[in-house]
Specification:
single chain, about 260 residues, alpha+beta, endopeptidase fold (from Nostoc punctiforme), five-stranded antiparallel beta sheet, four-stranded antiparallel beta sheet, 9 strands, globular, disordered C terminus
């Protein structure tokens, strides 16, 4: 894990991307900045609905709501909770894509889930259309088509940052349509969609300066084995590891705090 945590620490501050706190970043701010794109976590694939991990009692054709078996998390930066996915604190039920469409508003943050895959995130536009990062491209697609039998939910409150107004969220998303692999500064669909909604450059690869004082702590709530606390140097590193755990269900040998269990 040490290599993963250190992979962008060679950057000096002058090489880091900057941006307007409002999330309205000007095109020229992206010029000359080296970013790192990886599609090793590509989530939306060609699985059939029967491959998505839903049981006979919870087929993809059902409207929901119903629950799926998932790892639960909470995350902190400087003792402030910045992310929470805990069933005891929020509704983690999922719905069919058709039902989800009746619940969405422009600018909503959506998450599509399936067993043994990292969740796929997108920004809802309107009329069944979402904007998302897929296969190294920022694109607009039909939610019904990209769901491919997966169920989903609205996750506007998953991150605890202050959201941008819906029109600015959409401006962020639409303004990056068509960007491809060499122009993209997000490593997965979640980082892109969350950046659109919150406008924080920490969601970009290499988007924050590292300091000894600032660390991110991810609490992994594993059924039957307590809470494991992991430490990271950047939000992006934390997101990538959490998504890897979602896809594999396995914790690698990581930097653990307080022995790893509480």
């Amino acid at each position: 894990m040490g290599n993963q945590l250190d992979r962008i620490t060679h950057l000096n501050y002058s090489e880091l991307p900057t941006g307007d706190p409002s999330g309205l970043e000007k095109d020229e701010l992206r010029v000359g900045v080296a970013y790192f794109f990886s599609d090793e976590e590509e989530e939306v694939d060609d699985r059939t609905p029967s491959d998505c991990g839903f049981t006979k009692d919870h087929s993809p054709a059902e409207e929901g709501p119903f629950s799926v078996s998932e790892v639960e998390y909470s995350a902190f930066c400087s003792q402030e909770c910045i992310f929470s996915k805990l069933r005891e604190n929020e509704d983690l039920n999922v719905y069919s894509a058709k039902t989800l469409l009746t619940m969405c508003k422009p600018g909503d943050l959506l998450e599509l889930v399936a067993t043994a895959q990292a969740p796929h995130w997108a920004i809802y536009e309107q009329d069944d259309q979402v904007i998302h990062l897929h296969k190294g491209e920022i694109r607009k697609d039909s939610l019904l088509e990209i769901s491919n039998g997966r169920h989903g939910r609205i996750v506007n409150n998953r991150y605890r940052y202050r959201p941008l107004p819906p029109d600015l969220v959409m401006q962020n998303a639409v303004g990056h349509l068509g960007l491809s692999r060499d122009e993209i500064c997000w490593t997965n669909s979640e980082s892109f969609a969350a950046w659109c909604r919150f406008g924080k450059r920490e969601f970009k690869a290499g988007g924050e300066a590292h300091s000894a004082e600032q660390q991110y702590f991810l609490k992994v709530h594993l059924s039957g084995s307590g809470v494991h606390t992991l430490v990271f140097r950047s939000l992006e590193d934390m997101i990538r590891e959490r998504r890897r755990v979602d896809a594999s269900g396995i914790l690698k040998e990581l930097s653990l705090v307080n022995g790893g269990k509480e």
